[in-house]
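ugh ok so i messed up the first submission bc i forgot one of the chains. this is the corrected input, ALL of the components this time, i swear. 676 residues overall. if the numbers dont match what u have on ur side tell me asap before i send this to the collaborators (the ones from the other lab, u know who)
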Amino acid sequence: MSKPAQWDSVRASEIVMRERHWDGPALPILHALQEEFGYIHEEALPLVASALNLSRAEVHGILTFYHDFKWQPGGAHTLKICRAEACQSMGGAELADALLKRQSVMWGETTADGRLTIEAVYCLGLCACAPAALYDGEPVGRLCADTLDELVTEARGR
Amino acid sequence: MTRVFISQDAASLSLGSKRILARLENAAAEAGLALEIVRTGSRGLFWLEPLIEVETAEGRIAYGPLKTSDIDSLLAAGFLAGGEHPSRIGRLEDVAYLTRQARLIFARCGVTDPKSVADYEAHGGLRGLRRALALEPVEIVDEIKLSGLRGRGGAGFPTGIKWNTVLNAEADRKYVVCNADEGDSGSFADRMLMEGDPFTLIEGMAIAGLAVGATKGYLYIRSEYPHAYRAMNAAIEAATQAGILGSSILGSGRAFTLETRLGAGAYICGEETSLLESLEGKRGTVRAKPPLPALKGLFGKPTIVNNVLSFASVPWILEHGHEAYARYGMGRSMGTLPVQLAGNVKRGGLLELAFGVTLREVIEGFGGGTHSGRPIRAVQVGGPLGAYFPEHMLDIPMDYEAFAAAKGMLGHGGVVVFDDTVDLAVQARFAFEFCAAESCGKCTPCRVGAVRGVEVIDRIVAGIEREKNVALLDDLCQLMTDASLCAMGGLTPVPVTSALTHFPEDFDKAPHLPAAAE
Ligand SMILES: Cc1cc2nc3c(=O)[nH]c(=O)nc-3n(C[C@H](O)[C@H](O)[C@H](O)COP(=O)(O)O)c2cc1C
Ligand code: SF4
Ligand code: FES
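and heres the new structure output, hopefully the right one now
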């Protein structure tokens, strides 16, 4: 995964302008901003609002409706663990709980060293290979405590 | 040059197919062997993956499930000529799991190169579209109507009737929208098709455009599916280059273009009106119906909204005719249903079957029972809003009406198996928790009811005023069923009530306590 860029309002404006041509441009713009910076900086709100002729409150409303958009940068690596039923049936919930405990984080939080963010997702379409996760966008199936530990070691370097 | 096929479907990747491919490429390079590697989608036999197929005189010979350490011994065994090896399966077409299926829609998935229009055509692609170009719009719609195709997204609404409404609507512009939000846990057929045979979906949507007079289509893909999103974008690009999409479909002078949009992690955006709001760039709150999207849909224009599998069924129907399609299935459930077998099951995967096969045949016959080897205790069918069935009810046939009669639904065809370690009170609580997290917030029964539901179940499980709280739960479920604006709130009681009805003992483990203990 390429490292997100530092927040830069000039660059952000360029992205907003580049993406505003779509029909229903709000989601494409927000996705592009998050792709670039890793999160949506609050200064992006007025940029998006004026480009789309919306109020700030409306843009805020859109942003908060969708689970994907974040207000803060995440860790260097992201592990998205599926919490939905097929993964539950294979012991996914217990695995995830134990991992969160070992890493001393809650869902959506980043480890103290800033290396790893652990997020919850509800189904990755890998339900026949449960429990499943996405590590920096790479699918991982048939998770067990060992594979999770390997991923954490890779992310946190120990 | 030897042709070698290896799936790069997200589920195959999750099992290590990328590492297998890299190891094979290295080993072949070291040995000076020239290989033509075709990156396919998956055939959906996940318990045999990672899997490599090799083209030989006897057909495509499969080897799996593989570990990277197997590559050296495979090469030594002469697997590039189909040699013997402990992992040698033979032709996948001869494996019972596949021979007992009716692969109409998934015939090419895992077989062809999802980036190649030429390969698609060589395997029968575009015949449906060519036929549609020779028909009047109303003839296309009639073909779909008579085929009996019902929407595969969950509600099972007759597709031809929906198309007819859009065809007859007067407007300067109409749209075709594909619902590729596939949020239901236990579901992955939409994803597999988009990754493995995206041209079938494109062809189906183009035919829909011809049928109703729409020249623009959108595909709304959930963000949890980055691989499918990339595969669809690549396929749309290739189809446009090849003149399948664009200002003149296959030189006919009739236009159809397609764009993808990425969702942003909201389950409710699979509900069609919420999806349309989201496509328009708004919060994904549900719209009240009427007006139907078929009359006032995207940007207020008449719009077809269909599931990936509904559109993907269309080319086959146009190619082979409605009668051929309607010969599959039972009662009012005609054709085939891509069943997705998942969870705690030995042989999980994709089963495209004529309607009417029993759940037991799916889970035991195809699936081989639980993965853990423990007894099956519960099966959830149709995603998070589907019912939990006990083992003794597994003889229900896969049929929309039979499932409705058993107080459940087929939904998108996801089947999730649980062994006897499952606690149905935990599952019921999760159903409410999920609804609370994913509710769009527009109506009170759902927004507030889901939160109350979690609390009431906690009290029941703790043994606090048990009878009173069970009665309260019943009332709450009734209210959500009757008064929710959409099926999110309206169907959340289904998993809850089925759990309580079929597994009451799971809700009655604690000693009963009076109210004062709270
Ligand atoms: C909460 C909720 C979630 C839904 N999710 C999906 C989905 O992910 N995919 C889908 O095709 N339909 C989904 N639906 C059904 C759609 O509203 C709609 O019926 C469907 O897209 C119509 O297409 P079809 O007739 O081809 O099934 C959902 C419905 C509800 C109430
Ligand atoms: S039932 Fe739930 S998701 Fe549906 S409209 Fe009401 S609040 Fe929104
Ligand atoms: S339920 Fe976990 S990947 Fe589908």
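quick check: Chain B touches chain A through 63 residues (CB under 8 Å). that seems consistent at least. The domain at 2-92 of chain B is CATH 3.40.30.10 (Glutaredoxin).
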